[in-house]
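tool_call predict_complex ligand=UFG
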Amino acid sequence: MKILVTGGLGFIGSHAVVELLDNGYEVVVIDNLYNSNIDVVDSIKKITGKDFSFYQNDVCDLGVLEKIFNEHTIDAVMHFAGYKAVGESVKKPILYYENNLVSTLHLCKKMIEHNCFKLIFSSSATVYGEAKILPITEECEVGGTTNPYGTTKWMIEQILKDITISNPNFTVMVLRYFNPIGAHKSGLIGERPNGIPNNLMPYIVRVATGELEMLSIFGDDYDTPDGTGVRDYIHVVDLAKGHLKALEKAISSQGIYYYNLGTGTGYSVLDLVHNFEKVNHVKVPYKIVERRPGDIASCYADPSKAYKELGWRAELGIEDMMRDSYNFILKQKDY
Ligand code: UFG
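tool_result ok
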């Protein structure tokens, strides 16, 4: 079975490609390297001992998609490609709406033209906005997004729903990720944001290596056990495994399905810092600063639907996440 993976060299996509190859799938990757690196091709081959086809192109490019679908019989698509920086999306909304929506529309159009009807889509817990109840179930209201990035995810979910209504063969697994961190245990692939990281874990690792001086914790006056923000951090390898389970279900189902991919456990910013220091025997200096606009106090999943219907649940714990995140950064050759 051959799977097209868009954004397959990115943080989550690369881990999914490893799982697919390890489980006997053939893989075709399209990635424009906007937020990824060409070295990842070799790293994936080294980890898996397997080869795959790679197109260094943009998913918005209809001509390239036509070429890929002509050159390969694609059975299903995992769609990771997309812009994902919350702050940047506020500054560049047109770029975000254009890229994230057009790429998905073009992809679906070409899939249908080539009789490929199985799509696994990277959505985000951000579609729930500020959840009224915790833990968040798939039944919670969606749409209260607070930035253009989040709104693209919400809009794409609506578009995919409409496509499944118009075409009953079209099957979509909407996977709503909580906070993916960690890295492959080999240390060969992981998260490598360009510039100063926006997200907590990439920031912590760079403070630990001394590359950045100090972590700024955005507020300690939230209504949480220690006052700092609580999130549901999930190891990226667990997340990638969830995609394979969703793929298996997509192959034998029709319609649109929604799953939270999280652990169900919330950790605060300080929990993360303390666990990181303990596991890696390194200090992470921090200071408390103002809240970051748009942040919410707590966000964690009820992941029981994914367990019941996909037979998937997260298996790696916070210590694995801390160890693997640091191991990856230490192994980077430019560090
Ligand atoms: N935080 C800090 N200091 C930092 C960075 C983050 O204290 O330098 C705090 C935040 O205030 C928050 C927590 O760490 O409490 C996590 O922040 P992240 O930026 O790592 O992640 P978010 O939960 O804000 O956002 C993530 C993804 C989004 C996605 C959202 C879904 O970045 O793409 O989860 O819930 F939409």
